[in-house]
From TrEMBL:
Identification of the protein by name: Spore gernimation protein
Main location: membrane
One annotated Gene Ontology cellular component of this protein: membrane
Keywords for this protein: Germination, Membrane, Transmembrane, Transmembrane helix, Transport
Family membership noted in the UniProt record: Belongs to the amino acid-polyamine-organocation (APC) superfamily. Spore germination protein (SGP) (TC 2.A.3.9) family.
Length: 368
C-alpha cells in the first residue's frame, strides 16, 4: 500500500477528537438541562455535569488505553487475543445490540422533535422512515467517509452553540444562578447518572481503531473529544438556568430549543433562529446516528464475516424502525432510552474496561 492509499484509509487526531465529540453531543443536549434542573437547586447542576464528565473521562482512558494496546485491531480482535474467539463473539454482539437499539431510539427521538418544531403536519412515522432511509444510504458506503464527515459538521455545530450563547448574553440574569451549593451532595451524585448517559458514544474508537495510524496520539485525542462536550454541556446548562431560571428550566422539556427561540439576530437576518438551529442540529444527529449504525455493522461483520453489509442493513432496518415505534408515550420513550443507556454503560464501557484489566494482568498486547 503506497502513502496515498494509506492516508486515504487512516484517521488522525483531529478526526478522532471531532468524531468522539460529535457522538457525545446528540439528542441528550436538548433534554439534559431539564433533567438536571428537576433534580438540583438553582445552578448546582453544573457539579453533576462535571462529576459525570470525570466518570466519562475515566472510561475514556480505559477505552483509549485498550485501543492503543492493540493498534490496528478492532474490538472483536482485541477480545479474541485477550480471551478467546467465542467470548469475543459474545462481547461484540452485546455492544452491537446496544448500538442498534441506540439508533432505533434516536430515529424515534428525531422524528418526535422534528415534528414538534419543524413539520407539525407530518406524521412521525413518515419523518422517521425518511430519516432511517438517509441513514441506510450513509452506512452503505465506507466507514472512513463517515468519520471524515465530522470534519465538516462538527465545527458548524460548535459554532451554532457558541452563537446561541453569545446572542443570549443580554438575557442572562445572574440572580437565577445564585445561591450556589444548596443541593444535597447525594442528589448531585444521583443526578450525575443522567449526565454520564449523555457521554455515551466514545466507544466507537474500539472499532475505528483500525484506521488509527499513530497510536501514541489516540488516548489524548479521545480525552479531548470528551472534554469538549463537557465544556459545551456546562455552558449550555448555565445559560439555560441564567436565562429562564431554575423553575422554568425544570418544566421545559427541551430547554436548548427554547433558548434558540430567544435569540434575536441583529438586523433581522433570521426571523426564526430556532429553525436554523434545528437544521444544524439535525446534521450532528445524522453524523452521530450514522456512526453508531456503522459501528454496529462493523461489529456484526467481525462476527459474521460471510454476510454482506447491505444484506445486514436490509434485515436490520425494518426491525429498528418497528422497535422505535413501540413506545407509545413520552414516558415509555424515556424508559426505553434509560434502559439503552444502562446497556451502554455495561456493554460499551464496563466490559472494555474489564478486558483492559485482564490484558494487563495477563500481559497481553497487540502482538498476542
Amino acid at each position: 500500500m503506497n502513502n496515498n492509499q494509506l492516508s486515504n484509509q487512516s484517521i488522525g487526531s483531529k478526526e478522532i477528537v471531532y468524531s468522539v465529540s460529535n457522538m457525545l453531543i446528540g439528542l441528550g443536549i436538548l433534554t439534559l438541562p431539564n433533567t438536571i434542573a428537576r433534580n438540583t437547586h438553582f445552578s448546582d447542576g453544573w457539579m453533576s455535569i462535571i462529576l459525570g464528565g470525570m466518570i466519562a473521562l475515566g472510561f475514556a482512558w480505559a477505552i483509549g488505553a485498550l485501543a492503543s494496546r492493540f493498534p490496528g485491531k478492532n474490538y472483536h480482535a482485541m477480545a479474541t487475543i485477550i480471551l478467546n474467539r467465542k467470548a469475543a463473539h459474545v462481547v461484540t454482539l452485546l455492544i452491537s445490540l446496544y448500538l442498534l437499539l441506540f439508533v432505533s431510539y434516536q430515529v424515534r427521538g428525531v422524528s418526535t422533535i422534528t415534528r414538534l418544531y419543524l413539520f407539525d403536519n407530518t406524521p412521525e412515522e413518515i419523518i422517521g422512515l425518511v430519516y432511517l432511509l438517509v441513514l441506510i444510504y450513509a452506512v452503505a458506503g465506507p466507514s472512513i467517509a463517515l468519520v471524515r464527515m465530522n470534519l465538516i459538521f462538527f465545527p458548524i455545530v460548535v459554532s451554532i452553540m457558541l452563537l446561541i450563547v453569545i446572542l443570549n448574553l443580554g438575557s442572562l440574569n445572574m440572580h437565577y444562578l445564585l445561591p450556589v451549593f444548596k443541593t444535597d451532595w447525594r442528589r448531585i451524585v444521583i443526578t450525575s447518572k443522567d449526565t454520564v448517559f449523555s457521554y455515551l458514544g466514545l466507544e466507537i474508537m474500539l472499532f475505528y481503531n483500525i484506521y488509527v495510524v499513530r497510536k501514541s496520539k489516540l488516548l489524548g485525542s479521545v480525552f479531548r473529544g470528551v472534554l469538549i462536550p463537557i465544556f459545551i454541556y456546562f455552558i449550555i446548562f448555565v445559560f439555560v438556568i441564567g436565562v429562564f431560571g431554575p423553575i422554568v428550566a425544570s418544566n421545559t422539556l427541551y430547554p436548548l430549543a427554547e433558548l434558540a427561540k430567544e435569540v434575536e439576530v441583529p438586523g433581522g437576518i433570521f426571523e426564526r433562529f430556532e429553525f436554523f438551529f434545528f437544521v444544524i442540529w439535525l446534521m450532528t444527529l445524522f453524523s452521530t446516528n450514522a456512526m453508531a449504525f456503522d459501528v454496529a455493522l462493523l461489529a456484526l461483520e467481525s462476527v459474521f464475516p460471510k454476510y454482506r453489509r447491505f444484506t445486514m442493513i436490509l434485515i436490520l432496518a425494518p426491525i429498528l424502525f418497528i422497535l422505535g415505534l413501540l413506545p407509545s408515550t413520552l414516558r415509555e420513550l424515556n424508559v426505553f432510552a434509560e434502559w439503552i443507556s444502562y446497556m451502554g454503560i455495561g456493554f460499551a464501557w464496563l466490559l472494555p474496561a474489564l478486558l483492559l484489566l485482564v490484558a494487563k494482568i495477563r500481559g497481553v498486547k497487540g502482538n498476542g
